[in-house]
Amino acid sequence: MTTALPDLILEPLVRAALMEDLGTYGDVTTRSVIPEGTTYTAKLRARAEGVVSGMQIARLAFHLVDPSLEVRTLKEDGSEIAKGDTLMEIEGSAAAILSAERVALNFAGRLSGIATLTAACVAETKGTETRITCTRKTTPGLRMVEKQAVLHGGGFNHRFSLSDAILIKDNHIAAAGGIRPVLQAVKSNASHMIRVEIEVDTLAQLEEVLDEGGADVVLLDNMDTKTLLRAVEIANGRIVLEASGNMTLPRIAEVAATGVNYISMGALTHSATTLDLGLDF
Questions:
Q1: Residue 137 annotated among the catalytic residues of the structure
Q2: Which residues contact 63 (CB under 8 A, 6 or more apart)?
Q3: In this protein, which residues make up the domain named Quinolinate phosphoribosyl transferase N-terminal (predicted)?
Q4: 262-271, pLDDT tens digit by residue?
Q5: How confident is the model at residue 1 (pLDDT cuts 50, 70, 90)?
Q6: pLDDT, tens digit, for every residue of 66-78?
């Protein structure tokens, strides 16, 4: 389990989604067909197994539409769930429940899909010290909650933004004139409070990074398993190694077995399938 974010941080995201869905005149269907004062108890259920994420956001969605709704969370974020499990019960105004339903399900299904894929990848690292981490390949505006979903699945977070850490990619290296010049520039200009990661494509570049110094982490980009094994031997524990580039679930176990410290996967957030959840009256 991971600590929940403050509701205050999440509320603007949920409020914006509700405003998008309710439009300029609210839920005209519900207002037209549901008698005023009708109450009900709805159940948010899993229609597939996985790992749940987004329950905190779903609760916020219901409460922003109607603070008087009684919301009981039965499966906390990060919990493993089976098909048919009831994740949440919502009691109160039927109109309010129906008006918040789609936003709550959109968030919960999307985030549970990310948590479920992350958990599957983490399971492939069993018996190793390798950690699964996400990237910045997130849905614009939803990075915070998608990265939280990765944590719910047992993964770890990479940097949140360009301002969090220095990550020197191949284009930075080319523009700066090479490995040594770019690392020398970092040593001259970067704050001592900022960690430095540099991407390499070859073992020769890795050796150059180790010789020059100035980096905390090396990103091993698009290397085959044999090359990753050799990279771990060369580094010999002197620097954190992150394997990246087209990482897929079937390959995780063999990459983790090489001894790299991290495997970063954009797929966790850009290719996760929404977990099927539904609201039953």
A1: yes
A2: 69, 71
A3: 27-112
A4: 999 999 999 9
A5: low
A6: 999 999 999 999 9
Out of 27, 199, 212, 242, pick the active-site residue: 199
Sheet order of strands, 166-168 included = 131-133, 262-264, 240-244, 217-221, 196-200, 166-168
Q: Which residue among 27, 85, 212, 221 is the active-site one?
A: 221
Q: Exactly one of 72, 169, 187, 238 is catalytic; which is it? A: 169
In DSSP notation, 8-56 reads HHHHHHHHHHHHHHHTTT--HHHHHHSPTT-EEEEEEEESS-EE---HH
Question: Measured at the alpha carbon of residue 132, what is the angle toward residues 179 and 140, in degrees to the nearest 5?
Answer: 80
80-104 exposure pattern, b = at least 16 Cβ within 10 A, e = fewer: ebeeebebbebebbbbbbbbbbebb
Say how far apart CA 233 and CA 230 lie, in whole Å.
5
117 three-class SS: helix
CA distances 13 to 49, 68, 104, 107, 271, Å, are: 26, 21, 12, 10, 21
Catalytic-labelled residue, pool 137, 159, 180, 230: 137
How confident is the model over 137-185, as pLDDT tens digits? 999 999 999 999 999 999 999 999 999 999 999 999 999 999 999 999 9
pTM above 0.70? yes
Note the pLDDT of residue 246.
Answer: 85
Q: Is 102 marked active-site? A: yes
Give the bridge partners for 168, in sequence order: 198
169 is catalytic: yes
Q: Which residues pair with 41 in a beta bridge?
A: 91
